[in-house]
Write a structure and sequence with these properties.
Distance between the termini: 57 Å
Strand order of the largest sheet: 2-1-3-4-6-5
Strand content: 15-25%
Low-confidence stretches: 1-6
Structural class: alpha/beta
Shape: globular
Radius of gyration: 22 Å
Order of helices and strands: HHEEEHEHHEHHEH
Number of helices: 8
Length: 277
């Protein structure tokens, strides 16, 4: 792809991703359903009512009945969100496909009212680490090289830092690990296709892959990861991000030097001086 000074490199082929999503099977969307469950559970722990929510998602049908006032917004590069229009924005299972994840978060923050809440669920760095390892080993053995096959995904610590870069207050990031089991590699690959999560990297290999590579990858997967029932486990890591639109009413950190009690007194332990260097 020819680059101009005004062209930002695109990690993901969004047109291809859209075509994948158009062929999903509703019975395969268990990750999307788990993301909705996580959002609903977390909202029950927030002592507040939300009257103008927006949900950024590529799967509107999953969010049917969530809130009759909710605005459903496709997870395009430019989000259809109006400034200061929502007291809650949910970004559901799409940020790992964003070409500009910080830009997506900034758009969400601008769409929030003061002290509005952002909730994000996305796939994290350990997702499909087993498949990533065996495909790399098999491709090296069969073809003597490597090609991009599984999208890079952020680690939870780095993803939490994105909230701060986007200007959110009180950022929190945590992980919900999920393990699914499959009969074989073909079963896993079909499930990924049916949930719309197959390879949409711009630089993906666009010619047919030799069948021998998948036979080798299946054997490696079974050798290194099969469980006692001889089934293949696959890890999915749901990363949950929480942030608030800044407000003067939120809790603020104390200024350095403003403490009124020594730490040793608070912990009821003797205070010792550090040795001189």
């Amino acid at each position: 792809m020819t680059q101009t000074p005004h062209t930002q490199p695109q990690l993901f082929d969004r047109a291809t991703l859209k075509s994948y999503r158009a062929r999903v099977k509703p019975t395969a969307l268990f990750l999307q359903e788990m993301a909705r469950d996580e959002i609903e559970d977390r909202l029950t722990m927030v002592n507040r009512s939300f009257t103008s929510p927006a949900i950024v998602t590529g799967f509107a049908e999953i969010w049917a009945g969530f809130n009759h006032d909710a605005k459903i917004v496709p997870d395009d590069d430019v989000l259809n969100l109006q400034p200061s229009a929502h007291d809650l924005v949910v970004h559901a299972m799409g940020l790992h496909w964003a070409n500009d994840p910080v830009g997506q978060l900034i758009q969400c923050r601008r769409a929030l009212t003061e002290d509005g809440l952002l909730l994000v669920v996305m796939l994290g760095g350990r997702t499909l680490h087993e498949l990533r390892a065996v495909l790399a080993q098999a491709e090296t053995a069969v073809t003597g090289g490597l090609s991009p096959r599984i999208a890079p995904m952020g680690e939870v610590r780095d993803l939490g830092g994105l909230l701060q870069r986007a200007g959110f207050a009180l950022p929190v990031a945590d992980v919900v690990p999920v393990t699914a089991e499959y009969r074989d590699l073909t079963h896993l690959m079909h499930d990924l296709r049916d949930m719309g999560e197959t390879n949409a990297l711009t630089q993906r290999l666009k010619r047919p892959t030799p069948r021998k590579l998948f036979v080798e990858a299946d054997a490696l997967y079974r050798r290194h990861f099969a469980n006692a029932a001889n089934r293949l486990p696959a890890t999915y890591e749901l990363v949950c991000l929480t942030g608030w639109s800044p407000s003067q009413t939120q809790q603020q950190p104390l200024r350095p030097g403003s403490a009124k009690m020594r730490l040793a007194d608070a912990l009821s332990v003797p205070e010792t001086k550090l040795p001189k260097q």
